[in-house]
């Protein structure tokens, strides 16, 4: 009975460990404004992200500028180069941070409310900076640029309902799942008949759960990139995905290392205990010399 109860508790603990890591990441990593901004900040220097933003802003600008067909190619290249050069400036870094904070607040507000509207990032401030840069270079077309909205959809409205339910569950479980995993693991070890074997099973189970979590992150990345609209850069989305899940990947590696360390420690202590018992065992009694019987 104790062995069965211990096995069930340890199995639940090993299941809750990766789920707890996932829920904690969602609640305290993605859901926190400062941590989200810190994760997204390095992407302002990412080449693929800058190229995707340059393409979106260029498209928005050229939508407002009507030029003759022979000039469309040169104007397109000129505006694209101007936007690219702007993405290398400190002003772009500031605009990137402001846009991401605004987008994060909008996403969190959408996930925590009942509104069914798509969440978008407005790149109009970036386009305005580019227009000012072109005007400063005395480009005649700059005065004809009037970009009111250059929006990029961050969260489609059709996905909000499912994401809202999932995020709410993860947010609630962000604290309780890790605590439950620790309590179940300790309880399962304490009620076990052989605690050393219970510790070994807990370590191996935690390592397996961590490995599955890492695989889930990799599979999630592949599925995310496989379902993108044709006008969205897969490399840019991949960079954003990697930045957001970097902490989750580190946690999965940490859990894997912890589980393997615990399992290895249990094996080594078991081997040491067997050697000590063998060294303390009394040796065979010496044989008595045969007695001679005289006739």
UniProtKB/TrEMBL annotation:
Residues 1-26 form the signal peptide. The chain crosses the membrane at residues 173-193, 200-220, 250-273. Keywords: Membrane, Signal, Transmembrane, Transmembrane helix. It comes from the Bacteria. This is Integral membrane protein.
